[in-house]
Amino acid sequence: MLKKIAILAAIALVGYSLFFLGGYNVKSDFKAKLDSLDQVNDSLYAENLKDDSAIAELRDIDLDLQYKLDHQKAKVVVVDHWIDSSKQKIDTYTEHELITSFNNRYPADTVTNPLPLAQPVLVSAAKDLVELDGAKEKLVIKDSVIAIQDSRILFKDSTINLYVNKEGRYKAIIGNKDQAIAEWSKQYDNLNLQYKKLQIRSKFQKIGTYIIIGGLTYTLLAK
To answer: Which of these, 79, 94, 124, 151, has the minimum number of CB atoms within 10 Å of its CB?
Structure first.
């Protein structure tokens, strides 16, 4: 009787080992690693979105500065037109009008030092003064243009830095994706190995089934 019980217990243990133990096992740290990489990438994507907003703002500022720059350049054209028209107008002045223009420009000097009546000299001097006035106006405009260009350069540098930061994050994202692929590859190899082991185990299960059936048959017949 004890012999039969021992045989049945052995058969039950073999059956349990063959049919209930084993199976596919996923490494516990696999999902944790993938979740960690996804969280890092999500954070990097969020930072890039912030930089996209900053770049858009800088682009708007640059457009505004470009408008101001074009406006200042248009002023130079206006000044050049004023110079040309003023010089042409001087050519039409009478001698009296020419002297009057100098008296109006330099009232104190022309009272103590009367102007000569040589009209060609006065015409040349008047045109030179027009060129001087125009140059002063253009100098102010040029200074403004330089200041605007300096501001644009600063904002362009800021934009470039943002793009450089985005590039660095994208490289980090690609690196994380490569790590995830490597983890998936390891997991695939692990599952493939388990699959092969299960194939072998399946063969042993078949053999074990016949052994169990044989053992049970022997136990039932050996009375």
So the answer is: 94
CA nearest neighbour of 62 among 146, 158, 139, 143: 158
Q: Residue 93: is its pLDDT beyond 50?
A: yes
pLDDT in tens, 129-166: 889 989 999 999 999 999 999 999 999 999 999 999 99
Tokens representing 197 are 């082991």
Q: Which two tokens stand for residue 43?
A: 């954070």
CATH architecture of the domain 2-221 equals Orthogonal Bundle (1.10)
Whole-model pTM?
0.60
Q: How far apart are CA 178 and CA 82, in angstroms?
A: 66
Is-contact 119 95, C-beta < 8 A? yes
| Cβ within 8 Å of residue 133, ≥6 positions away | 83
Candidates 193, 169, 214, 185; CA nearest to 50 is 169
C-alpha distance across the termini of the chain, in Å: 9
* Structure token pair of residue 178: 């490569």
Closest Cα partner for 61 from 153, 196, 125? 153
* 21, 198 contact by CB (below 8 A): no
Alpha-carbon separation of residue 63 from 69, 152, 206 (angstroms): 10, 9, 78
